[in-house]
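Q: Could you fold this chain for me?
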Amino acid sequence: MSIERSSLLAVALWGVAAAASAQSLYDEGSFQSLTADRRALRPGDSLTVLVMESSSASATANTTTQKTGGITAGLTANTISKTGALSLGEDFGGKGTVQRTGRVAAQITVTVHSVAPNQEMYVSGKQEILVNGEKQLIELRGRVRPIDVSEANTVVSNRIADAHITYVGDGILAEKQKQGILSHILGWLGLL
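A: Sure. Below is the predicted structure, expressed as structure tokens.
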């Protein structure tokens, strides 16, 4: 009887073992070892962009013109002697200088949206900051080469191809920097 019980127990255990098929916890597509590189490589990964942009532009124009002309006429008759002169002159001097400098320093984390066949990552993201009633919005999109991503999972903005970086502020300070309505109208009329 003990042999029958042992056989029955073995068959039962074998049936339970066959019914419980083991699944691996290892997924080759998403596995990263503890020593793996944590840089962004796939869609959905995050990447921090160090925005360090500065630009400056200047233009100078200087124009000077001078124009003079004159007409002299005379009339002499037996009893009348008249002479007359007309002189015209025009001087114009114009000078103008435009100088503009801009600098943006910020950090923004973007998302990898897709990866091209050459492994370039298409990234985009935006960040909105509200400080003392001033809203600042930073938007960024472009293409990043994997080689340009540092070990800290960051990339400098000047290494982003086809970069579109927008930095807009809105609030009291931004409003004070705009032209007033009177200046706007006088400029439109050409009086300023």
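A (continued): The radius of gyration is 39 Å.
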